[in-house]
Amino acid sequence: MTLRFSILDQSPLGEKETTAEAIQHTVRLAKRAEELGYHRFWVSEHHDSTAVAGSSPEVLMAYLLAQTSTIRIGSGGVMLQHYSPYKVAENFNLLATLAPGRIDLGIGRAPGGYPKSTKALQPEHSAVTSLDEKLGELVHHLHQTLPADHPLHGVKATPIPETPASLFLLGTSVSSAELAAHSGIPYVFAHFINGNEKVIQDALHTYRSRFQPFRNDKPQAIIAISVIVTETDEEAKALAANHQNVKIHLESGRTINVNSLQAAEEYGRQAEEGYTLEVQDAQIIHGSKETVRERLLEFQQQYEVDEIILIARMNSYPERLRAYELIHEAFTELPVSFISNTGK
Fold this sequence. Notes:
By secondary structure, this protein is an alpha/beta fold. It contains eleven helices and twelve strands.
């Protein structure tokens, strides 16, 4: 049985922790993840946040590449709606040139911050192209395949690496699955944001059934899951009780997901439109290493995936580190191919 495990780390700010300390903990965690045999290590993009320190995945990725040698390093994800696809392609082509075969470019669909930070990132005149169009253009820039009738035909995103970054789309809905399928790229469903089983099943079915081969011969579905892993089930349950998922339903029809009432209320205030809040228990798999192992194996069978990206929902660095070590221990006790960080 083959089941790959990867990590998404958002550089959370622990109690009385500085942003510099949070980033250094991410660096230390990436190095330890490589030692343990995790396949990928991704970092996130959040703006104007007092909860997490990661705002520029490309910059942090460059540093992580210099501190590691085999584990794949990636973004989970770059919020493409804010940026020029051409510039994103240049950034990741440079990273792929520095570390051939080790770069993942995960694209996120959420804004990654509050309305004011979105305005700061998107001058009004540039926020006119849809994400679908930007993603298509990004694929062409990464592979130097802009069609002859494209207005940017002939422009090259340099440097041109021997092995371009691997492109992924992150999402929580059937529409995001359709976009990944149409683009012919791997799809990561964020269970930690949307744990609705029917939505997940529908999204993965849509992705697999409508997949159009482009750069990838077959669909590759991955699921990203929040975990809290401790020595005992009781300890993990107590930690999980402190977490919430809050949905902000705006009058305009959009729904935004955040992880606290405070963040939801601030988003609503900045949105300058009516909104309602829906509070739910956070989607977190929690327990001892044995309990979490069984749940993750159930997820593998239920959703037919061979890779799971883990997000330890524990702000303390020692707790996060121990959680990933416990999962490693749990699966190396079974005939599971865990160690696979060869950069391939």
